């Protein structure tokens, strides 16, 4: 036990322990951060720390795992997964199941506070005398000046938000992305490593809550837009096989996105700016597009009808005061009723007088459409250029080979002035010249692509570039 030293100079008093700074999500057993030989000799408790660090350099989240044979581990006192997440829950447990135990002496036998390694190296090891805490005192929050910090320096990190003690399981230890110095599993996208946003209920990101080991979830988050661009979200065919789902690149688990998108309309009712409402709804459309599930298709129709109303100039106040259902769960189970609701919603947004025109929305839509067209054109031109480059260079190499063969045959012919061999060589030279003339003509026809594939004769594209041109 080279990282922990017990000073026996004060027998009968609290021991002096050398506290070894540990890394985020690290775990271990026994002293100095967990009890030993309690309640019976030979009993060893395990400990684990979370990712959050206080301003004083200690872990905000620490977990204590008792020996599995202890009584009452499946009660409400311990919550779930047989792990103590707070000092108070451990106190309750001891007082209920070990009423004769000295709680203060128990907590004085090990250190509840666990120091963390800093960004530059290891904090100096300190020899401290373990204090005896009062029943309601939390050593991690002994004064108002001790605040938690995020590994990525994000003041709005989810891990810094007030949370229920048993709200979620701790994230699994990860030495891949979480090994990066400024990557926080709670607020950094696993795909782009940039911070997520908690704005508008956190609609723009998804968290993987798949249980990957006993008492641990994956816990990694990703921007929805990043997942869509990476073909890890939405409806994807082939080997991926997603239907309104999210595929976590870290643990290979799939997560249903329908409950996530189902909250969008409810979230939009609390948003004041129309541009943000359209942004949220458009993300929902991207996630649901192409879905095969009936409930996802129905939700898509509901969101699209809401977007139509916005495009036609309906104000946010009138939009949410409309009788048309805005949350999918309120939709009728009848397919005919849903169809009638959709048609009615389209009729409702058509006024008797002139149609209101939202100039800003239309210009934004046109800008996006033009941008998509130009990106597609550039991509198509790059593809055509690559095809032309490959075929033209291949034709050049073909001619180069023919010229080399012609020179070789002419050289052999010059050394033979008569005889059958000379006649044969002359025939070969003439055939080679004819072949070269044909390949040169072919090259000239291929060079028509300089005008662009759209102005190149169809026969040239089909014969020389192997492109099937539809009528």
From TrEMBL:
One GO MF term attached to the UniProt entry: zinc ion binding
Coiled coil: 363-446
InterPro entries xrefs: DUF7081, DUF7615, Oberon-like_PHD
TM stretches of this protein: none
Domain named Oberon-like PHD finger: residues: 153-286
Entry keywords, A to Z: Coiled coil, Metal-binding, Nucleus, Zinc, Zinc-finger
Name this protein carries in UniProt: Oberon PHD finger domain
Species name: Arabidopsis suecica
